[in-house]
């Protein structure tokens, strides 16, 4: 366990962040999806610090962040036409492309021939990336297997004693990790549902296949069945029915837009107006909050299976399996 730092400083000083990253340290950085724990992707010793701080097994590859498609090109062997269309239309944005790597250490990709690469859409992190002459490896800034952080405070609570600096860019505006797209024999494939809607990707390049945790031995654990999980048990279903089945238990409720009464539980409503984008933005914060209140059970429901609702349902399902 790394306990080298008293408590991470939180601030908006990108010069300090750049100085630390150049000296081989880790820094938590804001993105529009979730906060990442960043280090120089070309420096194995620095990258190893990410794995240690997160307690992350080295068989789980990291996503590499670049300032632009042009900045990413030196690290990619070639870009399929459909990948280029997606990158040009969506970057900076919540899309990770799996592409044949060049010059990226095996530690970053867990020995896989492809690297997950994306250009994040956050002004602070984009300025930071623009100042550096190396890309940043950055997984979500949470302990392995736990819910991703969407504020600097979330990072501070869990990793504060293990890292020197948290760049504070406010609350993540999307709140779900990036959508991961790769190509199998030229066929576009979504491996992780995320902040870029499937419908928008298909509008750009036509039909894509879905391959989400299809085997017990996935190529990468972001696709593991159990992941993104709070420490307390979570059940998905008809909220009034689950409430009556669990009378006498201390429960918290996370609902899409309705308030449930009789009995009136402690409840987080993710979007009273029924907006799935807003619900996505609030999901991880609500899970964390409910998880911190000492309940025996968190009860939630299936969200509409459209737009970001698909990724919300994916995260809730993974959070419910144990
Ligand atoms: O939105 C995001 O993607 C955030 C922000 C910080 O960019 N990052 C993120 O990283 O969610 P992480 O490490 O929590 O999830 C990365 C996942 C891995 O678990 C794996 O499933 C997949 O991305 N991945 C990364 N590189 C891969 C590769 N070379 N081959 C296959 N899958 C890969
Ligand atoms: Mg993660």
What is the number of helical segments per DSSP (H or I, 4+ residues)? 11
Order of helices and strands: EHEEHEHHEHEHEHEEEHEEHEEHEH
Strand content: 15-25%
Low-confidence stretches: none
Instruction: Output mean pLDDT.
Output: 93
Strand order of the largest sheet: 1-8-2-3-7-4-6-5-9-10-11
> How many beta strands in the DSSP annotation?
15
Largest beta sheet, briefly? Answer: 11 strands, mixed
**Helicity level:** 25-40%
Envelope shape = globular
Structural class: alpha/beta
Bound molecules: threonylcarbamoyladenylate, magnesium ion
Q: Please report the distance between the alpha carbons of the first and last residues.
A: 25 Å
Q: Radius of gyration, Cα only, in angstroms? A: 19 Å
Describe this structure in words.
- This protein is of the alpha/beta class.
- Helices cover 30% and strands 19% of the residues.
- The protein has an eleven-stranded mixed beta sheet, sandwiched between helices. A four-stranded parallel beta sheet has the order 12-15-13-14, sandwiched between helices.
- α1 crosses α6.
- The chain is globular.
- The structure holds threonylcarbamoyladenylate and magnesium ion (MG).
- Residues 31, 33-34, 36, 60-63, 96, 98, 109, 112, 114-116, 120, 138-140, 177-178, 180, 192, 219-223 line the site of threonylcarbamoyladenylate.
């Amino acid at each position: 366990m790394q306990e080298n730092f008293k408590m991470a400083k939180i601030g908006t000083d990108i010069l300090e962040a750049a100085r630390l990253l150049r000296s081989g340290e880790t820094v938590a950085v804001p993105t529009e999806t979730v906060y990442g724990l960043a280090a120089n992707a070309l420096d194995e010793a620095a990258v190893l610090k990410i794995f240690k701080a997160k307690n992350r097994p080295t068989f789980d590859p990291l996503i590499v962040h670049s300032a632009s498609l042009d900045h990413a090109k030196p690290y990619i062997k070639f870009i399929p036409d459909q990948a280029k269309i997606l990158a040009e239309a969506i970057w900076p944005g919540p899309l990770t492309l799996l592409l044949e790597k060049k010059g990226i250490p095996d530690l970053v990709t867990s020995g896989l021939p492809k690297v997950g690469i994306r250009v994040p859409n956050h002004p602070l992190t984009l300025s930071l990336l623009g100042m550096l002459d190396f890309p940043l490896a950055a997984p979500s800034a949470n302990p392995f297997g736990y819910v991703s952080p969407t504020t600097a405070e979330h990072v501070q609570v869990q990793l504060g004693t293990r890292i020197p600096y948290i760049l504070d860019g406010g609350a993540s505006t999307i709140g779900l990790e990036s959508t991961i797209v790769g190509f199998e024999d030229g066929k576009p494939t979504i491996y992780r549902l995320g902040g870029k809607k499937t419908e928008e990707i298909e509008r750009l390049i036509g039909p894509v296949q879905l391959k989400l945790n299809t085997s017990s031995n996935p190529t990468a654990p972001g696709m593991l069945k159990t992941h993104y999980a709070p420490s307390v048990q979570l059940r998905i279903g008809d909220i009034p029915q689950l409430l009556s089945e669990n009378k006498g238990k201390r429960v918290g409720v996370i609902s899409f837009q309705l308030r449930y009464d009789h009995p009136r539980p402690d409840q987080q409503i993710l979007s009273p107006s029924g907006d799935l984008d807003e619900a996505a933005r609030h999901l991880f914060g609500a899970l964390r909050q409910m998880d911190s209140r000492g309940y025996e059970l968190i009860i939630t429901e299936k969200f509409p299976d459209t737009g970001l609702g698909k990724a919300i349902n994916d995260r809730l399902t993974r959070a419910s399996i144990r």
